[in-house]
Amino acid sequence: FSGDMRFQMVYRNQWQSVTSPYKTVSFNGEFKKPIGNGDDFLTIGAQVLYDKAGTISMTATHILPVLNYHKSLSAEQNMYLSLGFMGGYVQRKIDQSKITTNNQFDGIMYNGSLLNGESFTNTTYSYFDASVGLSFNAQLGENPDNNIFAGVSYQHLNKASKISFYSNPEYELSPKWVYSAGIRMNATERSYFTFEADYNKQKIHSEIVAGFIYSYKLDDIEDPSLLIHGGLMMRVKDAIIPVIKLEKKPLSIALSYDVNTSQLSPASQSRGGFELSISYKKKKKND
């Protein structure tokens, strides 16, 4: 990101039309620090994520410090190779009093006095999680609106075990690969397009999200402080996602909505998830 510090908050509400909504809130921040007299720099930060899912209120809390090293590959400071590490504490919790099962059907109706048949040794467990990633970012030509990036990350590299509310058997968290790429190209002197895609794979499961964003500068062309962005993303075989974003530097606010297109769409009536993000990016006053 351009600037010396960034803070971001994201709120997501999903599947409210089908069941108890899945709610997710995340906060993250980064600070940039130059290395020596060269063009390299570090970013130091952290991400805190809280997720609450389903009728049993299963919650997940992630506290993940982040360290990134950015190596300049050009004298113009417009081409970087970045290596990042993220690792920290994760806790998951459920509310056992909200669990209902078939064992509590007495032949006529649900009977809450019957045992649900579950034998949890704990309603909380925690583990350490770690990830690593590598990315390349470069400006194309003289126009700063033209840019290309590509990255890959390997998540859950420590393969945390005992990630279950049951004492036996023990389950292991499978690693996940994430591949990202994108290109930004100017359309006119006031506007540009960004095309991007992500591919995630964890064991037999995979996901592709791809699309475009159109951006328009509402004030100064060379150094705009007021921009509007809009576009359309797609999660393959799951959702179409319209996006709109208003940016008044150093603040930006974005809204998106998942229009469900999966086999769940008859039950969800195509209503998926609403997401709001607020981002603050700032340069030092002497820059």
Can you describe what's shown?
The chain is globular and about 75 Å long. The longest helix has 4 residues. Strands 1-2-3-4-5-6-7-8-9-10-11-12-13-14 form a 14-stranded antiparallel barrel. 1% of the residues lie in helices and 60% in strands. With 287 residues, the protein is mostly beta strands. A hairpin with a 7-residue loop joins strand 6 and strand 7. The relative contact order is 0.13.
Structure in a nutshell:
It is built from one helix and 14 strands. The chain has 287 residues and is mainly β.
Tell me the strand order in the biggest sheet. 1-2-3-4-5-6-7-8-9-10-11-12-13-14
Instruction: Output mean pLDDT.
Output: 91
Unreliable stretches (pLDDT < 50, length at least 5) are: none
What share of the residues lie within helices? under 10%
Strand content: over 45%
Structural class: mainly beta
Tally the helices: what do you get?
1
Q: How far is the N terminus from the C terminus?
A: 15 Å
Largest sheet: 14 strands, antiparallel, barrel
The global form is globular
User: What is the C-alpha radius of gyration, as a whole number of Å?
Assistant: 22 Å
Q: What order do the helices and strands follow?
A: EEEEEEEEEEEEEHE
Total strand count, please?
Answer: 14
Features:
287 residues; 14-stranded antiparallel beta barrel; 1 helix
Describe the protein's topology.
Layout: E1 5-14, E2 22-34, E3 41-53, E4 58-72, E5 79-93, E6 124-139, E7 147-155, E8 176-188, E9 191-202, E10 205-217, E11 226-235, E12 239-248, E13 251-260, H1 265-268, E14 271-282
